[in-house]
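Extended Data, panel c. Modelled sequence:
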Amino acid sequence: MAQTIARGSGRDDQLVDIDQAFQDFMRDYSKKYETDEQYQVAKAAFSQSVREIEELRAN
């Protein structure tokens, strides 16, 4: 099951697939990972950061 994140504010909120958001991040910032392990660690950190941001925005 794909994770989703909220993007936008107010009525324009939309759910975005976390995998797609991470791919966009990698493209936008020219990120490349040499191993699958590095990729998974970076993706997990990205996902955690997004969750923390969402939590802060909710409060």
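The first helix runs from residue 18 to 28. This feature is highlighted in the accompanying rendering.
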